[in-house]
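chain below, 327 aa
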Amino acid sequence: MEYRRPLERAARRSVDDLSLTAKLSSAPLPSIAAVIPCHNSSESLELTLASLRDQDIPANEVICVDDNSGSLEANRQERLAHSYGAQYLRLPYDHRNRGRRSLARNAGTRQARAEVVLYVDSDMVLAPSYIASLRLIHGVHPRTLVKGTRIDVDKAFSSWPNEQEIRDRSLAVRPGAEYGAASSEPADTSSTPSPSPLSTGTRRDKHPICSGLYVSGHWDWCASNNLSVRRRHVVAVGGWDEHFVGWGEEDIELAYRLFLAGVEPVVQLSGPLTALHLNHVVDIDANMHSLEKNGLYFVRKFPEVLARRRLAYRQHGIVFDELEARR
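prediction:
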């Protein structure tokens, strides 16, 4: 397997070389499997499943993976999954109840038979054109890891909102807000995103794939609330690292390994791959505790990533003095 040098920037390429217009008519469209980890989340899971049901072109498979839900919630989630035509898997019980997102996503990946896996959280509501657009993107660019836009909202909309409604009711419209300024220090101009091969001059064609704004090279922006990649690429790099437990960094670490293996990370800043995140109560202390442990594991595994992750950790009050002193 050919690996890139760590932190290598994505090459800038001309619009003419990457124009999608000539490719769209002949690109084979891959099958899509949506993998949804869930934990005591039947209320929001139903909205996620409904948004997948209501797609312009539906996913080929929907797989719900239950990670340690209580018996009542597990029963609800299983009934919901079956009522929406989805598969339901339940992970073995863990008395520590630590949150095993990597284990759940690996289980869903093994179960899937589709060519592309969309990892989507059970509190996300997808735009109606999401799956159709995703098939086109992965059909034209098979070696990409694609991160859709997340927009935080207080509560669900009864139907997909227009732009004004999103602006009026959203809490965090800025796409970069979810990354915790996860790129390099502001003074480091090398962190400026490269134009993506998906951002071409073909917008005049009015095709959904041509209406978005994308950047490439930012593996550190690839949060997994709505993240997609060819299944074979995930398998080739060994899947999700199950040493990550609790919240944080398991998705960024996978994105980095895919990047090293030559899979291009592409982040949509705006466009058809948009999902509403239904805000809910979280245990901030527990999340910060697991983020510190997971971050330490990540930078010990790949010391070179600290340069790109340092600011994100600092914004959460985490400083790895010992590791920084060694550099």
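The chain has a mean pLDDT of 78. Residues 284-301 form the longest helix (18 residues).
thats it, cya
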